[in-house]
Specification:
Length: 141
């Protein structure tokens, strides 16, 4: 739905603050991944596997959808992560044609460390996100 109000200087400031807050968090998360020996994309893969609620774990297609990448790119990412000992493929218990992804002990450990740090940073940035989000809601409302 198109806005009927023309954007003013404050609106652009709010949009900038929102984008800046997101980028601050993403930059922090990227550093955390690196400190744990992962690329940001590997971290996203581990989170996509662990955060998925499908019984038995996600498929590569599920991961591709979550990460907004093409299926063949997800296959390559999973291949590299599997070679690094972060994830493994398992046959689905009810449909042997389907492969599910699960974290290895190493993948779980790395994800737990990054996630704990990221949650702490979200807590620290929380007031900033809250103020910016409220301003954005007023803008879009």
């Amino acid at each position: 739905m198109a806005r009927s109000k023309k954007l003013d200087d404050d609106d652009y400031w709010r949009l900038l603050e929102f984008r800046t807050a997101i980028r601050k968090f993403l930059s922090y998360s990227k550093r955390q991944a690196s400190e744990h020996g992962l690329t940001p994309t590997q971290h996203q893969l581990l989170l996509a596997v662990r955060g998925n609620r499908r019984e038995g774990g996600p498929t590569i297609g599920d991961v591709a959808e979550c990460l907004l990448i093409r299926h063949h790119s997800a296959v390559e990412l999973v291949d590299r992560a599997e070679a690094a000992g972060l994830v493994k493929r398992q046959q689905d218990r009810t449909d042997q044609r389907v492969m599910r992804l699960v974290l290895t002990r190493s993948g779980r450990s790395k994800l737990e460390g990054i996630s704990a740090a990221n949650l702490s940073e979200i807590g620290r940035l929380g007031p900033e996100f809250k103020d910016v989000w409220q301003a954005i809601e007023r803008l879009s409302g």
